[in-house]
Amino acid sequence: MNNIFLVNWVSTNVIERKTINYDFDTSHIRLAFEKDTHKYASNDEVNEVMRDLGYHSTGYDTEPYLNFNISSESPALIIYRNEILGSH
Length: 88
Prior knowledge:
- The chain is mainly alpha-helical.
- The chain has 4 helices and 2 strands, in the order H-H-H-E-E-H.
- Strands 1-2 form a two-stranded antiparallel ribbon.
- The model has no long low-confidence stretch (mean pLDDT about 95).
């Protein structure tokens, strides 16, 4: 997968916050990316891009499903809730 595409998507669709958001993990970001772009990304690719963009993570005991310092109001998580979970 072209990581530049993933980097651009994350940069546009993820909003940073100061604290770790334990309600969402890598898989939620990945599923939103796949739903929005119809392209596949692995959890490891998402983690790498998130770290490269300066996001902080925890949950190394459940890797590759890491929690990051991302806002619940991030477009990516809105896509996840609306398109994957079907809630509004």
